[in-house]
Recover the amino acids of this structure.
């Protein structure tokens, strides 16, 4: 009964030199997390076609898999197609499914990648191929482990793909807190959107989050939460436009975990974006998120369940 952490960096996405997607962050993050909690780490399973088509059109899943998306659709995603890209994308979605299972069993689960919230039903966009959060929620709903879910999307960019796929679906409440002047420039309406001005710093961000998350929780009860803990609201982010410090981001994570735990909502944590000049800054922020999740939900958080298991063994 322990919080599991799923990695996908073993499935490398081949990119041309100078590509701005920060691929090295995943291996560095895994190395740091392994030193802290190696016994909790697992290799992510692969999301199946059946799982993917609950969030995406079968035509899109097939075109991604077979490499038949047209060049314009590939440019929109921002990665060159390769079989390894498909494998990586399936593993990343599978990691969030597995993190949800861990959350439902043990209170929390972590995907060291994921948060690909620009993936729409019919197309990918902005380094996002499959929408891991929606794929995972649909899997839990199909298994009847979850009826209603909450997505807390604190990546600095709006979760337009999530909003697209979940339009008209009352079973998932999405809160997206994002930069008004940032990508995507044509935003889709989530259940709850909060737009922030350029340069928003720790105090203002945290005050806004407090009000917004409490409002979201009023829409409960929720059986599961998925938290997109983007590192890109960081002041040093090249794409972020906000001005949060590392300490502010740590307070953000602690606040989200406290609130979800306070409402007995199991949480699957995904990393989402992070584009600081120095990739180690991104790794620092993601690592702090993982460490905070382990501290809040780690072994011993459900002693009642563990002792019950031991009692059952004794019987
Ligand atoms: Zn982002």
């Amino acid at each position: 009964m322990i919080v599991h952490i799923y990695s996908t960096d073993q499935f490398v996405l081949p990119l041309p030199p100078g590509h701005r997607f920060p691929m090295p962050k995943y291996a560095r993050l895994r190395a740091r997390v392994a030193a802290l909690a190696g016994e909790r780490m697992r290799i992510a399973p692969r999301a199946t076609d059946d799982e993917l088509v609950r969030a995406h059109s079968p035509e899109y899943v097939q075109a991604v898999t077979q490499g038949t998306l047209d060049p314009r659709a590939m440019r929109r995603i921002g990665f060159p197609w390769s079989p390894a890209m498909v494998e990586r994308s399936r593993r990343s979605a599978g990691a969030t499914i597995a993190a949800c299972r861990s959350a439902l069993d043990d209170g929390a689960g972590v995907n060291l990648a994921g948060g690909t919230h620009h993936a729409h039903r019919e197309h990918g966009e902005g380094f996002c191929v499959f929408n891991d959060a929606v794929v995972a929620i649909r899997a839990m709903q199909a298994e009847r482990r979850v009826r209603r879910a909450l997505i807390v999307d604190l990546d600095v960019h709006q979760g337009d793909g999530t909003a697209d796929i979940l339009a008209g679906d009352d079973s998932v409440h999405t809160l997206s807190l994002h930069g008004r002047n940032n990508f995507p420039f044509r935003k889709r309406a989530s259940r709850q959107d909060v737009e922030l001005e350029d340069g928003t710093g720790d105090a203002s961000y945290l005050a806004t989050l407090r009000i917004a998350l409490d409002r979201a929780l009023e829409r409960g009860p929720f059986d599961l939460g998925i938290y997109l803990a983007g590192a890109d609201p960081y002041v040093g982010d090249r794409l972020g436009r906000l001005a949060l410090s590392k300490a502010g981001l740590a307070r953000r994570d602690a606040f989200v975990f406290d609130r979800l735990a306070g409402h007995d909502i199991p949480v699957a944590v995904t990393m989402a974006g992070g584009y600081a000049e120095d990739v180690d800054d991104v790794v620092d922020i993601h690592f702090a998120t993982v460490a905070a999740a382990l501290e809040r939900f780690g072994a011993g958080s459900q002693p009642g369940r563990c002792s019950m298991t031991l009692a059952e063994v004794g019987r």
